[in-house]
């Protein structure tokens, strides 16, 4: 299974989701069964590492995302990934706009997997440190739900 997390800049929310979800996969013993990546719909930060505030917030939870580098959503992603998960509604709209009709991926909001039907992970970029903590809390909850979904799908394969 292959999972892609998508936000606007790929320096705050989606690299945080990638790091947290990898840690949850490891705890679940599923690291070898699931490929994980993240990207942004925008190109402003391509090649850059995560925002220092996202790095610090993740580090406080024992997660190191310092090696990640931002990239932009690419046409090949639609064929490669099984799940393309947006952090907010704008990201979701941008993903859908670039989506070819042949794409079979599940495209939706990440927080669906936290049992939140229409909720976004809010953009923390122009806010303070607490915003980054809130992002991680939401991501942790959705990661648990996504692990459960993948576990069920993998057991049916
Ligand atoms: P992200 O946060 O989409 O969670 O990576 C942002 C990063 C950069 C900008 C906005 C949001 N920006 O406007 O440059």
UniProtKB/TrEMBL annotation:
InterPro entries in UniProt: LMW_PTPase, Ptyr_pPase, Ptyr_pPase_sf, Tyr_phospatase_low_mol_wt
Matching Gene3D superfamilies: 3.40.50.2300
Pfam families: LMWPc
Domain Phosphotyrosine protein phosphatase I: 1-149
Taxonomy, superkingdom: Bacteria
Keyword tags: Hydrolase, Protein phosphatase
Regions crossing the membrane: none
EC numbers for this chain: 3.1.3.48
Keyword Hydrolase annotated: yes
Statement: the UniProt record of this protein carries the keyword Hydrolase: yes
Molecular functions (GO terms): protein tyrosine phosphatase activity
Enzyme active site: 7 (nucleophile), 13 (nucleophile), 123 (proton donor)
EC class (word): hydrolase
Family the UniProt entry places it in: Belongs to the low molecular weight phosphotyrosine protein phosphatase family.
Name the UniProt record assigns to this protein: protein-tyrosine-phosphatase
């Amino acid at each position: 299974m292959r999972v892609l997390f998508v936000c606007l800049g790929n320096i705050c929310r989606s690299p945080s989701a990638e790091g947290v979800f990898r840690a949850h996969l490891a705890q679940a013993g599923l690291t070898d069964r699931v490929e994980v990546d993240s990207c942004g719909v925008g190109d402003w930060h391509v090649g850059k590492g995560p925002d220092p505030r996202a790095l610090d917030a993740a580090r406080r939870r024992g997660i190191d995302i310092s090696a990640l580098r931002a990239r932009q959503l690419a046409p090949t992603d639609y064929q490669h990934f099984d799940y393309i998960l947006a952090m907010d509604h704008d990201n979701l709209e941008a993903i859908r706009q670039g989506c070819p009709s042949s794409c079979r991926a599940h495209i939706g909001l990440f927080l669906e997997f936290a049992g939140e039907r229409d909720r976004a992970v809010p953009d923390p970029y122009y806010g303070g440190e607490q915003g980054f903590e809130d992002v991680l809390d939401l991501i942790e909850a959705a990661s648990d739900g996504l692990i459960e979904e993948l576990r069920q799908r993998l057991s049916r394969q």
